[in-house]
Fold:
Amino acid sequence: MLASDLDNPEAVLGIPLFKAENAMQGFWAAPPIPVSWRPGMNLDLVGPLGHGFDLPREVRRLGLVALGETVSRLMPLVRQTAQSQVGMTMFTDLPLPAAPASLEAYPLASLVEALDWPDYLVFDLPLEHLPELRSVLGLPVGTGLTCPAQVLLTTSMPCAGLAHCGACAVPTRRGWKLACEDGPVFDLNQLKW
Ligand code: FES
Structure:
């Protein structure tokens, strides 16, 4: 979802918003949001843009890794998965919001030792940190994960795909893709990392 501040004509760039939780007549957005935003202000919302996580039915042990500034963008997937028999473990150094009892949490440093536990991994990762992912996982160049993974790449999306500005370009094995159209969730195998 891209939000534009209708009360501020100088705010020409839209802000990507991600759902953290459903609400009665809308949704709670994951932080951060601009500090200038105030209750009651008018926003123009465009979207939803692109596509989100789509886990195979066979997943039984889901690892979640939050490498951005919040775990909130992963919480809708956590709440949805909590309805099933899937075991879930979050790896992060960030504070956790109220979470289902079925979610275990460990510090990020535990991930390297626990990589043989999940049969599926999901990441929340700012695009600019994609080159560091290999060292976070402790994987030497030329090696990969033993399980499939999807990555929510966060980046600015100033035109929401309307002008093909390219600001949200993501390096993939098949050239550049747009986070606003082709993502923001990508199969990790698709990406150059
Ligand atoms: S935000 Fe402009 S192409 Fe994606």
